[in-house]
Amino acid sequence: MNWDETTDSPAAGAERLVGSVADREDQAVEAALRPKDLGEFIGQEKVREQLDLVLRAARARGATADHVLLSGAPGLGKTTLSMIIAAEMGAPIRITSGPAIQHAGDLAAILSSLQEGEVLFLDEIHRMSRPAEEMLYMAMEDFRVDVIVGKGPGATAIPLELPPFTLVGATTRAGLLPPPLRDRFGFTAHMEFYEPAELERVVHRSAQLLDVEIEADGAAEIAGRSRGTPRIANRLLRRVRDYAQVKADGLITRDIAGAALAVYEVDPRGLDRLDRAVLTALLKLFGGGPVGLSTLAVAVGEERETVEEVAEPFLVREGLLARTPRGRVATPAAWAHLGLTPPGPRGGGTGGNGQGDLFGA
Q: Bias category Gly residues: which stretches (predicted)?
């Protein structure tokens, strides 16, 4: 599999209009649209309130802020919050990622060059190598690392004092973090998916910064198809903007937004081609399931990992698909969404052609 550098999702996710992986265009636009302080940051009310207290208290003490762990799905604002933390503390920020730190020496080089009070943002922290992770324990707790010089019996540990710094770790899989690392963070927060009303505010703010004319119902249409993720909302806004400039007078209305997203195959609930292909195969070929993941992946012509990591999470969250010990099962909402009628009661409870028992989950 070809994996993206900063995510655990297959690289196929980066190619989807509704994928939460950031591509180069997203990164450039996000830099321009990114809020500069907590007051501008939309959504995540509890996290903002708690983080504001942590930062204000640190400033009042004249100390560096506690280490911060941010968890949640891609595209919810973890990187943005790390930059806001640095801005609120008046400190520079250093950005790296877990996959980039494969050896303890890589981490030692970064830590030894930090300035006092600097913020170190470590994205996908759960993917850091174990030796580097163990070095990070001492650095976070005692602001010290032991650099090993030499090999074998003659190896010597040289203690290296570090200036106080704030580590901001981000992860999409908090459960993969070992407890000793997780416990060393003074503040932890989980980023939730956004409500449509919050995403409407995101779309209006981004449209203003991009100098795009948009009506309230047009923003609502985009927000409703954004899968609870600001990054997706901004990406859809850009594509709708393109459509409005070419096919209309540049003003984004509900009709224009709907027509534009229909061109890009994003339906009113936010499902794209892959999502609908999975549901269609599950309903039409296997009678709603249960059916094994491998069988379902073959039916839609995708890799097993792509279906499991890219399509399924959203379908499960939307209540359109369920994972069971015997395989994947469509819910009544899935039948309704595709406008299909579920079959009547079936004998034996195997579902479809009974392949759920044969192939399993």
A: 346-361
143 is in an annotated binding site: yes
Tell me how far the alpha carbon of residue 213 is from its chain's centroid: 28
| Residue 87 and residue 220 in one domain | no
Containing structural domain, residue 224: 196-263
pLDDT tier at 27, thresholds 50, 70, 90: low
207 in the same domain as 180? no
Q: Is 36 annotated as belonging to a binding site? A: no
Residues with a known catalytic role:
78-79, 123, 172, 231
Query: 182 a known binding residue?
Result: no
CATH number of the domain bearing residue 316: 1.10.10.10
326 appears as a binding residue in the annotation: no
Give yes or no: residues 49 and 132 share one domain. Answer: yes
The DSSP-derived string for 97-153 is EGGG--SHHHHHHHHHTPPTT-EEEEETGGGS-HHHHHHHHHHHHHSEEEEEESSGG
Does residue 121 lie within any of the structural domains? Answer: yes
| 24 alpha-carbon distance from chain centroid | 16
Report the CATH number that the domain containing residue 239 is assigned in CATH. 1.10.8.60
pLDDT tops 50 at residue 348: no
Whether the pTM exceeds 0.85: the reply is: no
320-332 pLDDT tens trace: 898 888 888 888 9
Residues sharing a CB contact under 8 Å with residue 275, sequence separation 6 or more, in sequence order = 311, 314, 315
Q: How far is 27 from 238, CA to CA, in rounded Å?
A: 13
Instruction: For residue 157, tell me if it sits in a domain.
Output: yes
